[in-house]
Write a structure and sequence with these properties.
Length: 163
C-alpha cells in the first residue's frame, strides 16, 4: 500500500490548465525524486500535496484513505511538510522564531519563549548546528544552506506542530 497517493490531479489557474490527470505515489521508507523541465508542474503538484493550492479535481489518499488537504495546517497535522524553493526567512526574527513560524509553542495565542528556545536548541543540536536560538537571522546568516531553507521541515519533523 502506498503511504501517499495522488490520482488524476488537475489544476488550472484562470482557465490555463497546468496539471492534467497527474498520478503520483509515495511508498514509506523509500526516497523519491520528482524531476522535470521548468514549468512541468512539479512545484504545483507538491503545493497541492502541502495544502498551499487546491486541486481543480482529483484525489489524495494516505494509507488507503482519502484525505482533503485544505491548507498547510491540515497538511502538517497529516505529517506532510514541504521545503519550498522560494526563500522565506524573516531576517529580523530570531532563529527560533523562524523555525517555529506559525507553530510557536504556547497557549491562547501567547508564545512560550522558554519552550520555544529550548526546543529550538534541541532541534539544532540534533542536526549538528551550533547556533544561538535567540540570535537574529540577519546575524546568524539567514537564508543560507545552513538551515534557513529547511527550518519549517525540521520543526515539523521533530514535532513542532504543538501550538
Amino acid at each position: 500500500m502506498n503511504l501517499i497517493e495522488m490520482k488524476k490531479i488537475h489544476k488550472d489557474f484562470y482557465g490555463n490548465e497546468v496539471l492534467h490527470g497527474v498520478d503520483f505515489s509515495l511508498k514509506a521508507g523509500t526516497v523519491h525524486a520528482l524531476m522535470g523541465e521548468n514549468g512541468a508542474g512539479k512545484s504545483t503538484l507538491m503545493k497541492i500535496l502541502a495544502g498551499v493550492y487546491q486541486a481543480s479535481s482529483g484525489s489524495v489518499s494516505m494509507n488507503g484513505s482519502e484525505v482533503r488537504v485544505e491548507n498547510p495546517t491540515v497538511a502538517r497535522h497529516l505529517g506532510i511538510s514541504m521545503i519550498h524553493q522560494e526563500l522565506s526567512t524573516e531576517l529580523e526574527m530570531s532563529v527560533a522564531e523562524n523555525i517555529f513560524l506559525g507553530r510557536e509553542p504556547g497557549k491562547y495565542g501567547l508564545v512560550d519563549f522558554r519552550q520555544l528556545y529550548g526546543r529550538t536548541k534541541e532541534l539544532l543540536e540534533s542536526i549538528g548546528v551550533s547556533l544561538d536560538p535567540r540570535q537574529r537571522m540577519k546575524v546568524a546568516g539567514g537564508g543560507s544552506a545552513d538551515g534557513g531553507d529547511c527550518k519549517g521541515s525540521i520543526a515539523g519533523r521533530q514535532g513542532g506542530d504543538h501550538g
